[in-house]
Amino acid sequence: MTYVLGLTGSIGMGKSTTAAMFADLGCAVWDADAAVHRLYAKGGAAVGDMAVLFPEAVADGTVSRAGLKRIIAADETALHRIEAIVHPLVAEDRAAFLACTETDIAVLDIPLLFEGGYDRQVDGTVCVTAPPDVQRARVLERGTMTEAQLDTILAKQMPDCQKRALATWVIETGTLEHARAQVQAVVDAIRQEIRNA
């Protein structure tokens, strides 16, 4: 039996670091963002359809995320059309991962876990969280976006408090040691549940 655990958290909460901690404990981890990167890369399953729909976003056989952002900003219907291509392909990628997973715990790292209803397809959920000031500092330290851009992203995401309320477990990422201890506790609880099943 493989226990499927959905992992989510807003931008800057430490989700990628937490996913790596689950991997360190022997869990198989699937990353939705990495799946999209594979689909957009040379030879990726989304490239052909994107080239037909938005040829200006495809160059050298790859889909440009920056190009898609510009298109989405200029055309409010673009995102829906892009998602109609990408979401089914991501679902196929996720299903293929689960079909060949042999570990006792499979972690699905999905940013929009609750928003997309994917929480109904897993056995349990984890929300990664951090105080708002820590979250903001982490994102701005990356140097990839302005405060205004961050505020725009946060306005579109489900509030952290709502994600925490929906989650089976909440992992606070204030320090690495504290986060690691909480990940260990979640893994221990799941493995105990598997033994008792």
What this model shows, in words?
By secondary structure, the chain is α/β, with parallel strands linked by helices. It has two domains: 109 residues, P-loop containing nucleotide triphosphate hydrolases (Rossmann fold, 3-Layer(aba) Sandwich), CATH 3.40.50; 74 residues, Rossmann fold, CATH 3.40.50.300. The chain is built from nine helices and seven strands, in the order βαβααββααββαααβα. The strands form two sheets. A five-stranded parallel sheet has the order 2-5-1-6-7, with helices on both faces. The termini are close together.
CATH topology of the largest domain: Rossmann fold
- Biggest sheet strand order reads 2-5-1-6-7
Largest sheet geometry: 5 strands, parallel
CATH superfamily of the largest domain: P-loop containing nucleotide triphosphate hydrolases
- Which CATH architecture of the largest domain? 3-Layer(aba) Sandwich
Mean pLDDT: 94
Tally the structural domains.
2
Strand portion: 5-15%
Instruction: Provide the gyration radius in Å.
Output: 18 Å
From the structure above, extract its key features.
197 residues, alpha/beta, Rossmann fold, 2 domains, five-stranded parallel β-sheet, 9 helices
List the topology elements:
Elements: E1 3-8, H1 15-24, E2 28-31, H2 32-40, H3 47-53, E3 58-59, E4 62-63, H4 65-74, H5 78-99, E5 105-109, E6 124-129, H6 132-141, H7 147-156, H8 160-166, E7 169-172, H9 176-196
Parallel strand pairs: 1-5, 1-6, 2-5, 6-7
Antiparallel strand pairs: 3-4
